[in-house]
Amino acid sequence: MAPEFSLPWATRDSVGPAEAPFRLGHARGKVVVLAFFPKDFTSGCTAEMRTFADQYATMFGDGVVVLGISVDSVTTHVSFAQSLQLPFQLLSDPTQSVARRYGSQGSGDHMRRTVYVLDKDGRVAYRNLQFGALDPHAYDDLKAAVHSAR
Is the pTM of this model over 0.90? Predict the structure, then answer.
C-alpha cells in the first residue's frame, strides 16, 4: 500500500486553502501518478512537467490524478504551473517528509526524481526510482504503467 499523506497544494490558478490540503486517501478509486521532482524552474523539471502537460490526454487521460511534488512553496508552484500551463496539482513537501516515505528524499534542498503509479485501491503498481526526464522511453513506460493500473 502507498503511504498516506497530506500536503498543501497549488494549481496554475491558485494556492489551495490551508484548511483543505491534498489527502491521498481522497483519491482512492482513481489511478494516481506521484511525480517527485527536484525543483521548480530547473531544466530537467521543466522538461518533465512540460512533457506531462503536453501529453496529458494520451499519457494519463480521464480518471487519473497526476501530482507533482517538490520542496518548493505553493507560491512558487503557482508561478511554475502558470508558466507551463500545467493541468494538474503541484504539492509542497518542504521538509521532504513524504518524499522520505517514498524513497524520494534527496540531499540538501532537492528531491530525487522518482515516479510512482498507484492503482485504484491505493497500491503501488509501478515505481521508477531514477525517472529520466529527458528519456522518451521513461514516458513510454509510465504511459504503459498507467494503462495497466486502470
Answer: yes
